[in-house]
# Entry
Amino acid sequence: MSAGGFHTCGLKTDGTVACWGSNKWGQAQPPAGAFRQVSSGGFHTCGPNTDGAVVCWGSDVWLEATPPEYALTQVSVAGSRSFCGLNTDSTLTCWNLTPPTGTFTEVSAGGSHTCGLRTDGSVACWGFNGWLEATPPEYALTQVSVAGSPSFCGLNTDNTLTCWNLTPPTGTFIEVSAGGSDACGLRMDGTLQCWGDNTYGQATPPPGPFTHVSAGYRHTCGVKADSTVACWGDNTYGQATPPPGAFTLVSAGYQHTCGLKSDGTVACWGDNSALQASPPPLVFNQVSAGGFHTCGILKTVNTVVCWGDNSLLQVTPPPGAFTQVSAGFWYTCGLKTGGTLVCWGDNYYGQATPPVGTFTQVSAGNSDPTFACAVERDASVACWGVVAIAQTPTLLP
# Structure
Protein backbone atom coordinates (compact mmCIF):
# COMPACT_ATOMS: atom_id res chain seq x y z
CA MET A 1 0.00 0.00 0.00
CA SER A 2 1.27 3.48 -0.88
CA ALA A 3 -0.56 6.76 -0.16
CA GLY A 4 0.21 9.73 -2.42
CA GLY A 5 -0.86 13.34 -2.39
CA PHE A 6 -4.57 12.79 -3.06
CA HIS A 7 -4.72 9.14 -4.07
CA THR A 8 -3.70 5.69 -2.87
CA CYS A 9 -2.51 2.56 -4.66
CA GLY A 10 -2.07 -0.99 -3.48
CA LEU A 11 -0.39 -4.12 -4.79
CA LYS A 12 -2.82 -7.04 -4.93
CA THR A 13 -1.86 -10.64 -4.21
CA ASP A 14 -1.86 -11.44 -7.93
CA GLY A 15 0.64 -8.62 -8.61
CA THR A 16 -1.83 -6.24 -10.22
CA VAL A 17 -2.24 -2.68 -8.93
CA ALA A 18 -5.48 -1.06 -7.74
CA CYS A 19 -5.75 2.69 -7.08
CA TRP A 20 -8.43 4.98 -5.69
CA GLY A 21 -8.91 8.66 -4.86
CA SER A 22 -8.21 11.66 -7.06
CA ASN A 23 -7.61 10.79 -10.70
CA LYS A 24 -7.28 14.29 -12.15
CA TRP A 25 -3.94 13.43 -13.80
CA GLY A 26 -4.62 9.72 -14.32
CA GLN A 27 -2.58 8.87 -11.20
CA ALA A 28 -5.25 6.44 -10.00
CA GLN A 29 -5.58 4.59 -13.30
CA PRO A 30 -2.86 1.90 -13.31
CA PRO A 31 -1.96 -0.07 -16.42
CA ALA A 32 -2.55 -3.78 -16.70
CA GLY A 33 0.18 -6.21 -15.75
CA ALA A 34 1.93 -7.66 -12.71
CA PHE A 35 4.17 -5.50 -10.52
CA ARG A 36 6.71 -6.13 -7.77
CA GLN A 37 6.00 -2.90 -5.88
CA VAL A 38 4.07 0.37 -6.20
CA SER A 39 4.84 3.91 -5.03
CA SER A 40 2.38 6.82 -5.11
CA GLY A 41 3.67 10.36 -5.57
CA GLY A 42 2.01 13.76 -5.46
CA PHE A 43 0.14 13.42 -8.76
CA HIS A 44 1.65 10.29 -10.30
CA THR A 45 2.42 6.66 -9.51
CA CYS A 46 5.26 4.29 -10.45
CA GLY A 47 6.13 0.67 -9.97
CA PRO A 48 8.64 -1.89 -11.23
CA ASN A 49 6.95 -4.70 -13.11
CA THR A 50 7.97 -8.33 -12.82
CA ASP A 51 10.88 -7.94 -15.26
CA GLY A 52 12.23 -4.90 -13.36
CA ALA A 53 11.18 -2.23 -15.85
CA VAL A 54 9.58 0.83 -14.23
CA VAL A 55 6.14 1.89 -15.41
CA CYS A 56 4.64 5.25 -14.38
CA TRP A 57 1.28 6.91 -14.89
CA GLY A 58 -0.24 10.29 -14.04
CA SER A 59 1.23 13.79 -14.19
CA ASP A 60 4.45 14.19 -16.16
CA VAL A 61 5.04 17.93 -15.60
CA TRP A 62 8.46 17.30 -13.99
CA LEU A 63 9.13 14.15 -16.04
CA GLU A 64 8.07 12.22 -12.95
CA ALA A 65 6.20 9.72 -15.11
CA THR A 66 9.14 9.28 -17.52
CA PRO A 67 11.48 6.87 -15.71
CA PRO A 68 14.83 5.74 -17.13
CA GLU A 69 14.87 2.45 -18.99
CA TYR A 70 16.75 0.56 -16.30
CA ALA A 71 15.84 -2.58 -14.38
CA LEU A 72 15.08 -1.50 -10.81
CA THR A 73 14.37 -3.58 -7.71
CA GLN A 74 12.66 -0.79 -5.75
CA VAL A 75 11.23 2.60 -6.61
CA SER A 76 10.12 5.60 -4.51
CA VAL A 77 8.25 8.55 -5.98
CA ALA A 78 6.53 9.88 -2.85
CA GLY A 79 7.32 13.50 -3.62
CA SER A 80 6.35 15.80 -6.44
CA ARG A 81 9.88 16.52 -7.66
CA SER A 82 12.01 13.65 -6.36
CA PHE A 83 11.75 10.13 -7.76
CA CYS A 84 14.42 7.47 -7.42
CA GLY A 85 14.97 3.76 -7.72
CA LEU A 86 17.39 1.08 -6.59
CA ASN A 87 19.32 -0.59 -9.39
CA THR A 88 20.04 -4.32 -9.47
CA ASP A 89 23.67 -3.57 -8.50
CA SER A 90 22.45 -1.59 -5.43
CA THR A 91 23.39 1.80 -6.89
CA LEU A 92 20.79 4.55 -7.26
CA THR A 93 19.04 6.04 -10.26
CA CYS A 94 16.97 9.23 -10.00
CA TRP A 95 15.11 10.96 -12.79
CA ASN A 96 15.19 14.49 -11.40
CA LEU A 97 17.67 14.86 -8.56
CA THR A 98 21.28 13.65 -8.73
CA PRO A 99 21.86 10.86 -6.21
CA PRO A 100 25.13 10.14 -4.39
CA THR A 101 27.40 7.31 -5.46
CA GLY A 102 27.82 4.07 -3.57
CA THR A 103 25.63 1.08 -2.76
CA PHE A 104 22.31 1.22 -0.95
CA THR A 105 19.70 -1.16 0.43
CA GLU A 106 16.72 1.22 0.34
CA VAL A 107 15.69 4.62 -1.00
CA SER A 108 12.83 6.93 0.01
CA ALA A 109 11.78 10.08 -1.87
CA GLY A 110 10.18 12.98 -0.01
CA GLY A 111 8.53 16.16 -1.22
CA SER A 112 11.60 17.70 -2.83
CA HIS A 113 14.39 15.62 -1.36
CA THR A 114 15.41 11.98 -1.06
CA CYS A 115 17.22 9.81 1.48
CA GLY A 116 18.89 6.44 1.00
CA LEU A 117 20.07 3.77 3.40
CA ARG A 118 23.63 2.71 2.57
CA THR A 119 24.82 -0.86 2.87
CA ASP A 120 26.91 0.14 5.91
CA GLY A 121 23.77 1.41 7.70
CA SER A 122 24.47 5.13 7.30
CA VAL A 123 21.98 7.53 5.72
CA ALA A 124 22.64 9.89 2.81
CA CYS A 125 20.17 12.59 1.78
CA TRP A 126 20.08 15.03 -1.11
CA GLY A 127 17.78 17.59 -2.69
CA PHE A 128 15.89 20.53 -1.22
CA ASN A 129 16.67 21.50 2.37
CA GLY A 130 15.76 25.17 2.13
CA TRP A 131 14.79 25.93 5.71
CA LEU A 132 17.15 23.48 7.45
CA GLU A 133 14.37 23.07 9.99
CA ALA A 134 15.15 19.43 10.55
CA THR A 135 18.90 20.00 10.60
CA PRO A 136 19.51 21.05 14.20
CA PRO A 137 22.98 22.12 15.29
CA GLU A 138 24.94 19.49 17.17
CA TYR A 139 24.88 21.44 20.43
CA ALA A 140 23.67 20.35 23.84
CA LEU A 141 20.31 22.04 24.40
CA THR A 142 18.02 22.14 27.44
CA GLN A 143 14.92 23.41 25.61
CA VAL A 144 13.81 23.65 21.99
CA SER A 145 11.00 25.55 20.23
CA VAL A 146 10.05 25.01 16.58
CA ALA A 147 6.53 26.41 16.43
CA GLY A 148 7.03 28.26 13.15
CA SER A 149 8.16 27.28 9.67
CA PRO A 150 11.27 29.45 9.29
CA SER A 151 12.06 30.03 13.01
CA PHE A 152 13.46 27.34 15.28
CA CYS A 153 15.60 27.96 18.36
CA GLY A 154 17.00 26.24 21.39
CA LEU A 155 18.42 27.11 24.79
CA ASN A 156 22.02 26.03 25.28
CA THR A 157 23.28 24.54 28.52
CA ASP A 158 25.05 27.85 29.27
CA ASN A 159 21.70 29.68 28.79
CA THR A 160 22.72 31.32 25.52
CA LEU A 161 20.56 30.85 22.43
CA THR A 162 21.08 28.82 19.27
CA CYS A 163 18.78 29.20 16.26
CA TRP A 164 19.18 27.22 13.05
CA ASN A 165 17.67 29.85 10.80
CA LEU A 166 17.21 33.22 12.52
CA THR A 167 20.11 34.98 14.25
CA PRO A 168 19.37 35.26 17.98
CA PRO A 169 20.59 38.02 20.28
CA THR A 170 23.54 37.48 22.56
CA GLY A 171 23.31 37.13 26.33
CA THR A 172 21.71 34.63 28.66
CA PHE A 173 18.08 33.51 28.72
CA ILE A 174 15.88 31.17 30.71
CA GLU A 175 13.32 30.40 27.98
CA VAL A 176 12.86 30.74 24.21
CA SER A 177 9.75 30.47 22.05
CA ALA A 178 9.66 30.41 18.24
CA GLY A 179 6.65 31.81 16.39
CA GLY A 180 5.57 31.91 12.77
CA SER A 181 8.51 33.98 11.53
CA ASP A 182 9.87 35.36 14.77
CA ALA A 183 11.12 34.26 18.16
CA CYS A 184 11.16 35.67 21.69
CA GLY A 185 13.46 34.96 24.60
CA LEU A 186 12.97 35.55 28.31
CA ARG A 187 16.08 37.03 29.91
CA MET A 188 17.29 36.36 33.45
CA ASP A 189 15.94 39.71 34.64
CA GLY A 190 12.42 39.01 33.35
CA THR A 191 12.64 41.24 30.29
CA LEU A 192 11.72 39.95 26.85
CA GLN A 193 13.70 40.27 23.65
CA CYS A 194 12.15 39.29 20.31
CA TRP A 195 13.62 39.09 16.81
CA GLY A 196 12.55 38.18 13.28
CA ASP A 197 9.43 39.28 11.42
CA ASN A 198 7.63 42.20 13.07
CA THR A 199 4.96 42.91 10.45
CA TYR A 200 2.15 42.65 12.99
CA GLY A 201 4.13 43.94 15.96
CA GLN A 202 4.62 40.40 17.27
CA ALA A 203 8.33 41.05 17.92
CA THR A 204 7.74 44.26 19.92
CA PRO A 205 7.00 43.15 23.47
CA PRO A 206 5.71 45.48 26.20
CA PRO A 207 7.77 46.23 29.32
CA GLY A 208 8.05 43.42 31.84
CA PRO A 209 8.95 41.75 33.98
CA PHE A 210 7.66 38.42 32.65
CA THR A 211 7.86 34.85 33.93
CA HIS A 212 6.88 33.04 30.70
CA VAL A 213 6.56 33.71 26.96
CA SER A 214 4.85 31.97 24.03
CA ALA A 215 5.14 33.04 20.39
CA GLY A 216 2.26 32.12 18.09
CA TYR A 217 1.76 32.42 14.35
CA ARG A 218 1.55 36.23 14.17
CA HIS A 219 1.10 37.15 17.81
CA THR A 220 2.92 36.63 21.08
CA CYS A 221 1.76 36.35 24.69
CA GLY A 222 3.51 36.29 28.03
CA VAL A 223 2.72 35.86 31.71
CA LYS A 224 3.81 38.91 33.70
CA ALA A 225 5.28 38.88 37.19
CA ASP A 226 1.87 39.81 38.63
CA SER A 227 0.39 36.67 36.93
CA THR A 228 -1.62 38.63 34.36
CA VAL A 229 -1.29 37.86 30.64
CA ALA A 230 -0.16 40.42 28.06
CA CYS A 231 -0.38 39.78 24.30
CA TRP A 232 0.81 41.74 21.26
CA GLY A 233 0.79 41.36 17.49
CA ASP A 234 -2.01 40.31 15.15
CA ASN A 235 -5.41 40.55 16.84
CA THR A 236 -7.70 39.79 13.88
CA TYR A 237 -9.54 37.06 15.81
CA GLY A 238 -9.06 38.52 19.28
CA GLN A 239 -6.12 36.18 19.93
CA ALA A 240 -4.10 39.06 21.43
CA THR A 241 -6.89 40.22 23.80
CA PRO A 242 -6.47 38.09 26.92
CA PRO A 243 -9.09 37.99 29.69
CA PRO A 244 -8.30 39.31 33.17
CA GLY A 245 -7.23 36.99 35.95
CA ALA A 246 -4.19 35.19 37.31
CA PHE A 247 -2.35 32.73 35.04
CA THR A 248 0.64 30.44 35.45
CA LEU A 249 1.33 29.83 31.76
CA VAL A 250 0.06 30.80 28.32
CA SER A 251 0.19 29.13 24.89
CA ALA A 252 -0.15 31.17 21.69
CA GLY A 253 -1.42 29.06 18.79
CA TYR A 254 -2.23 29.75 15.17
CA GLN A 255 -5.13 32.18 15.60
CA HIS A 256 -6.14 31.49 19.18
CA THR A 257 -4.52 31.49 22.60
CA CYS A 258 -5.07 29.46 25.75
CA GLY A 259 -3.83 30.04 29.27
CA LEU A 260 -3.64 27.98 32.43
CA LYS A 261 -5.23 29.87 35.30
CA SER A 262 -3.92 29.73 38.87
CA ASP A 263 -6.77 27.39 39.85
CA GLY A 264 -5.81 24.91 37.10
CA THR A 265 -8.70 25.70 34.77
CA VAL A 266 -8.07 26.76 31.18
CA ALA A 267 -9.26 29.96 29.49
CA CYS A 268 -8.98 30.46 25.72
CA TRP A 269 -9.56 33.43 23.42
CA GLY A 270 -9.38 34.18 19.70
CA ASP A 271 -10.60 32.07 16.79
CA ASN A 272 -13.12 29.46 17.88
CA SER A 273 -14.27 28.22 14.46
CA ALA A 274 -13.45 24.60 15.36
CA LEU A 275 -14.20 25.00 19.11
CA GLN A 276 -10.46 25.11 19.75
CA ALA A 277 -11.07 27.98 22.20
CA SER A 278 -13.80 26.13 24.14
CA PRO A 279 -11.95 24.14 26.83
CA PRO A 280 -13.72 21.60 29.03
CA PRO A 281 -14.31 22.57 32.70
CA LEU A 282 -11.49 20.41 34.04
CA VAL A 283 -8.34 21.01 36.07
CA PHE A 284 -5.06 20.88 34.11
CA ASN A 285 -1.34 21.24 34.80
CA GLN A 286 -0.41 22.19 31.21
CA VAL A 287 -2.08 23.45 28.03
CA SER A 288 -0.89 23.81 24.42
CA ALA A 289 -2.69 25.68 21.61
CA GLY A 290 -2.17 24.32 18.08
CA GLY A 291 -3.53 25.13 14.64
CA PHE A 292 -7.26 24.56 15.13
CA HIS A 293 -7.14 22.42 18.24
CA THR A 294 -5.86 22.53 21.80
CA CYS A 295 -4.59 19.87 24.19
CA GLY A 296 -3.88 19.79 27.90
CA ILE A 297 -2.68 17.41 30.60
CA LEU A 298 -5.12 16.68 33.41
CA LYS A 299 -3.69 17.51 36.81
CA THR A 300 -4.82 14.46 38.75
CA VAL A 301 -4.17 11.57 36.33
CA ASN A 302 -1.71 13.17 33.85
CA THR A 303 -3.69 11.97 30.85
CA VAL A 304 -4.14 14.16 27.77
CA VAL A 305 -7.45 15.78 26.86
CA CYS A 306 -7.88 17.64 23.55
CA TRP A 307 -10.62 19.73 21.94
CA GLY A 308 -11.26 21.43 18.60
CA ASP A 309 -10.87 20.13 15.05
CA ASN A 310 -10.50 16.36 14.88
CA SER A 311 -10.53 15.89 11.10
CA LEU A 312 -7.15 14.12 11.23
CA LEU A 313 -7.58 12.63 14.73
CA GLN A 314 -5.34 15.31 16.24
CA VAL A 315 -7.63 15.56 19.29
CA THR A 316 -7.77 11.80 19.83
CA PRO A 317 -4.81 11.18 22.14
CA PRO A 318 -3.59 7.74 23.14
CA PRO A 319 -4.04 6.55 26.73
CA GLY A 320 -1.31 6.80 29.31
CA ALA A 321 0.36 9.32 31.58
CA PHE A 322 2.19 12.31 30.10
CA THR A 323 4.54 14.98 31.42
CA GLN A 324 4.23 17.37 28.45
CA VAL A 325 2.02 17.87 25.40
CA SER A 326 2.65 20.05 22.34
CA ALA A 327 -0.11 20.78 19.83
CA GLY A 328 1.10 21.33 16.26
CA PHE A 329 -0.86 22.50 13.24
CA TRP A 330 -2.77 19.32 12.34
CA TYR A 331 -1.14 16.93 14.80
CA THR A 332 -0.01 16.62 18.43
CA CYS A 333 3.02 15.17 20.20
CA GLY A 334 3.34 14.20 23.83
CA LEU A 335 6.11 13.17 26.20
CA LYS A 336 5.17 10.16 28.27
CA THR A 337 6.25 9.71 31.88
CA GLY A 338 9.02 7.31 30.87
CA GLY A 339 10.53 9.82 28.45
CA THR A 340 9.27 8.23 25.23
CA LEU A 341 7.49 10.22 22.53
CA VAL A 342 4.13 9.58 20.92
CA CYS A 343 2.40 11.69 18.25
CA TRP A 344 -1.05 11.52 16.68
CA GLY A 345 -2.97 13.24 13.89
CA ASP A 346 -1.73 14.26 10.44
CA ASN A 347 1.37 12.31 9.39
CA TYR A 348 1.66 13.38 5.75
CA TYR A 349 5.22 14.67 6.26
CA GLY A 350 6.17 12.10 8.89
CA GLN A 351 5.66 14.66 11.68
CA ALA A 352 3.62 12.18 13.73
CA THR A 353 6.30 9.48 13.55
CA PRO A 354 8.81 10.41 16.27
CA PRO A 355 12.15 8.68 16.70
CA VAL A 356 12.80 6.06 19.34
CA GLY A 357 14.63 7.18 22.47
CA THR A 358 14.19 8.93 25.80
CA PHE A 359 13.53 12.65 25.78
CA THR A 360 13.02 15.56 28.17
CA GLN A 361 10.98 17.99 26.03
CA VAL A 362 9.14 18.11 22.70
CA SER A 363 8.00 20.93 20.41
CA ALA A 364 5.51 20.35 17.58
CA GLY A 365 5.69 22.84 14.72
CA ASN A 366 2.58 24.97 14.36
CA SER A 367 2.78 25.56 10.61
CA ASP A 368 1.91 23.66 7.43
CA PRO A 369 4.07 21.96 6.11
CA THR A 370 5.48 21.09 9.47
CA PHE A 371 8.00 19.19 11.57
CA ALA A 372 8.79 18.54 15.22
CA CYS A 373 11.91 18.48 17.41
CA ALA A 374 12.69 17.05 20.82
CA VAL A 375 15.52 17.27 23.34
CA GLU A 376 17.09 13.94 24.26
CA ARG A 377 18.34 12.93 27.68
CA ASP A 378 21.93 13.72 26.59
CA ALA A 379 20.78 17.25 25.53
CA SER A 380 21.12 16.54 21.80
CA VAL A 381 18.22 17.34 19.46
CA ALA A 382 16.31 15.06 17.10
CA CYS A 383 13.88 16.39 14.47
CA TRP A 384 11.44 14.72 12.12
CA GLY A 385 8.86 15.73 9.54
CA VAL A 386 9.00 17.91 6.40
CA VAL A 387 12.40 18.45 4.75
CA ALA A 388 13.99 16.11 7.28
CA ILE A 389 17.56 15.02 6.76
CA ALA A 390 16.11 11.55 7.28
CA GLN A 391 12.40 10.85 7.22
CA THR A 392 12.95 8.54 10.19
CA PRO A 393 15.90 10.35 11.75
CA THR A 394 18.48 8.60 13.84
CA LEU A 395 19.47 10.12 17.15
CA LEU A 396 22.37 12.55 17.13
CA PRO A 397 25.56 11.31 18.78
Notes: The first strand starts at residue 2 and ends at 3. Residues 4 and 337 are 35 Å apart (CA to CA). The chain is about 0% helix and 40% strand.
